[in-house]
Design goal:
This protein has helices at 3-14, 50-58, 83-90, 109-116, 127-133, 135-143, 173-185, 193-199, 250-258, 275-284, 296-304, and strands spanning 27-32, 35-41, 66-69, 94-97, 120-123, 147-154, 188-192, 217-221, 241-245, 262-265, 268-269, 272-273, 289-294, 310-315, 318-319, 341-342, 357-359, 362-368. By secondary structure, it is of the alpha/beta class. Strand 11 and strand 12 form a beta hairpin. The two termini are 34 Å apart. Helices cover 27% and strands 22% of the residues. The protein has a nine-stranded mixed beta sheet with strand order 10-9-8-7-13-6-14-18-17, sandwiched between helices.
């Protein structure tokens, strides 16, 4: 088994990030006489799977070749025919997999079919990398709820806003562009109504360069339907707007629906929308991944309910002060972002060589929630 061939397949799969839901990202390369003769990746749900794309390119040359694929080939009829049938018919002699498909409809059955047809099957090559690539799919396909990432911009003392509630802008332009990339990869972005009332965000995707953005579903957790009908999120280009409430008001609901929003009335928990029920509803909509962007109330609820799978924290070299459970500095805090105590010429030393990414003067720290 050659890891460079699987590494290439992983690179190919990554090209479709944010475009394949509810399917996984998959890449495939066909190797003959030690050289890649064809390759492909799954572009989006409903289109050919990676193996089929590569096999079509290879044609008759696939006979006797080896197929390197990042995920076990499917063996069931979905929007497209089973990939195992195409692999068997092509004359491929060996299939090397990175990881087994966690989908209960596959889960080893694809490998079994290939072996039954006399094809040599090997798996586990770059398995960890392949599983990380599809971490969102792996959760969704087994639990039917989205993989949730909590994203926040913080001051060095752990504040997500100044004393007046303002948060524009704690992070710098490079960090904000990274957030747009995260939105582009997510199926949904979630905020609380206080974020809408204070920041009036659009919650769409604005990417630098020529890449066409993919706008996520925009979800507002708004227990009492306080979202203004003239909010930017309702009048900017982007994905569908879903407003989750637990206290219905026919007049307010009608006003929001007139602006194109979908209003979803959910059960209440502690006088707020039950976030677990919201995640179940998003799962029914085939929302594979969700990005929670604030504010503090939603962050706290999601963490306390054990809904967060991953955190992405952008730290900026400023100190806001003020009280709070997670505050480094105490007191009243600065009144606005403009009055923040700013740092310069700072340095960062990774502890235990943990991943630390620099975005100009901001730091992105990512990690997974231990469950």
């Amino acid at each position: 088994m050659k890891s460079e061939f699987m590494a290439r397949a992983l690179v190919l799969a990554e090209k479709a990030r944010g475009r394949t839901s509810p399917n996984p990202m998959v890449g495939a390369v066909i190797v003959k006489n030690g050289k890649i003769i064809a390759e492909g990746f799954h572009e989006q749900a409903g289109k050919d799977h990676a193996e089929v794309v590569a096999l079509k390119k290879a044609g008759n040359a696939a006979k006797g070749a080896a197929l390197y694929v990042t995920l076990e080939p499917c063996c069931h009829q979905g929007k497209t025919p089973p990939c195992t049938d195409a692999v068997i018919a092509s004359g491929i002699r060996k299939v090397v997999l990175a990881t087994q498909d966690p989908n209960p409809l596959v889960a080893g059955k694809g490998m079994a079919q290939l072996k039954k047809a006399g094809i040599t099957v090997m798996h586990g090559l770059l398995q960890k990398e392949a599983q990380k690539l599809n971490e969102t799919f792996n959760k969704f396909i087994t639990q039917k709820t989205p993989f949730v990432t909590l994203k926040a911009a913080l001051s060095l003392d752990g504040k997500i806003a100044a004393a007046d509630g303002s948060s524009k802008w704690i992070s710098n332009e490079r960090s904000r562009q990274r957030v747009h990339e995260m939105r582009d990869a997510a199926d949904a972005v979630i905020v609380g109504v206080n974020t809408v009332l204070k920041d009036d965000p659009r919650l769409n995707v604005r990417l630098a360069g020529k890449k066409k953005p993919k706008h996520p579903l925009r979800v507002i957790v708004d227990s009492k339907l306080q979202t203004p009908p003239d909010a930017h999120v309702l009048h900017s280009h982007g994905g569908e707007v879903l407003i989750a409430a637990c206290h219905d008001d026919a007049r307010k609901r009608k006003a929001l629906e007139n602006e194109g929003a979908t209003v979803l009335i959910l059960p209440e928990k502690n006088k707020m929308v039950d976030l677990k029920e919201l995640m179940k509803e998003l799962g029914k909509r085939e929302t594979v991944s969700a990005l929670i962007e604030g504010g503090a109330t939603i962050f706290t609820m999601a963490l306390e309910e054990g809904l967060v799978d991953k955190v992405a924290l952008f730290y900026a070299p400023i100190i806001l002060g003020g009280s709070g459970r997670f505050s480094l500095a105490h007191g009243e805090g600065v009144k606005s972002i403009e009055k923040a105590i700013r740092l310069k010429d700072f340095s960062i030393t990774p502890i235990d060589e943990k991943p630390v990414k620099l975005f100009a003067e901001n730091v992105l720290i990512e990690g997974y929630v231990s469950k």
